[in-house]
Amino acid sequence: xxxxxxxxxxxxxxxxxxxxxxxxxxxxxxxxxxxxxxxxxxxxxxxxxxxxxxxxxxxxxxxxxxxxxxxxxxxxxxxxxxxxxxxxxxxxxxxxxxxxxxxxxxxxxxxxxxxxxxxxxxxxxxxxxxxxxxxxxxxxxxxxxxxxxxxxxxxxxxxxxxxxxxxxxxxxxxxxxxxxxxxxxxxxxxxxxxxxxxxxxxxxxxxxxxxxxxxxxxxxxxxx
Length: 224
Fold this sequence. Notes:
single chain, alpha/beta, Rossmann fold
């Protein structure tokens, strides 16, 4: 990175080295298969692998990021319609790591009973999943953290579930604005005990920060 362009990992000291990036590349280049979709708690599959959950507001880019880091065009459905993902979708990454696409929250136009169902399903999953190693909280870099993100972060704090902020769509920001967003996000996370210290800046469209994110997640996979 040049001096006027912020690192895709903040603080930069948390960036992984070339060897870790290669390990991440190999893992995420492997097979990635749909395992199950859960609309209710009893449909959640057994927790046989370490899991990483992808969470965030509706239309923040969860499906796009999942497709991008796994190198698939349509692993997860991408839609311009907020609230499209209405269930927990589980994907096995080479039998070493489970990727879980969670329903987006904050879509006010969804029926209230649907919002209540999604919220309860998320709560049950996040509080009771022993195999959940980390939750990635995706945040649109153009807007940053919002009050609507607070309940999820509080739940993760109370449940002692490590979560890590991943800024999406950073290609829409100037380097100066992105640097400021990273600093303000880090400051906001200081009050959350479960927050991981490293923030990742990514763009699925521009392929920004994806190698570093893969390297960050690879150590969470099983080595068996």
